[in-house]
Amino acid sequence: MKKYIYEYVRVEMPQAVLKFPTMEEHRQIISEYGNKGWRYVGNIRIRQTNDGESLGYDLIFEKETEE
Fold first, then answer.
1. CATH assignment at residue 43
2. What contacts 22, CB < 8 A, 6 or more positions away?
3. Phi-psi bin for 61: left (phi > 0), alpha (psi -120 to 50), beta?
4. What stretches of the chain show up as alpha helix (H) in DSSP?
5. Which domain covers residue 39, as residue numbers?
6. What is the number of structural domains in the chain?
7. Digit-coded pLDDT (tens) for 7-59
């Protein structure tokens, strides 16, 4: 049976980005981790405004392990 380890990377979004959504940090992080053998599997919103806009989230990566 395959086993996996998981890595969580927190990405904070300043409120100014909500008005001008040009943030590229998440793409850079996904590429960096992919080049290291991690697979992007999703994200979890960790902070939001009262209107439901995201202010921060965790990117989730997995890698198969031998353990």
1. 3.30.70
2. none
3. beta
4. 15-19, 25-35
5. 3-65
6. 1
7. 999 988 776 555 544 567 788 899 999 999 999 999 998 888 888 777 888 99
pLDDT: is 26 or 67 the higher one?
26
Query: What single DSSP character describes residue 52?
Result: S
Strand order in the sheet with 54-65: 3-12, 54-65, 39-48
Contact 60, 33 (CB under 8 A): no
pTM: 0.78
**How far is 27 from 37, CA to CA, in rounded Å?**
16
Instruction: Supply 38's token pair.
Output: 């991690």
Of 32, 49, 31, 40, residue with least CA distance to 7: 40
Which pair of structure tokens corresponds to residue 33? 């981790």
Res 32: pLDDT: 96
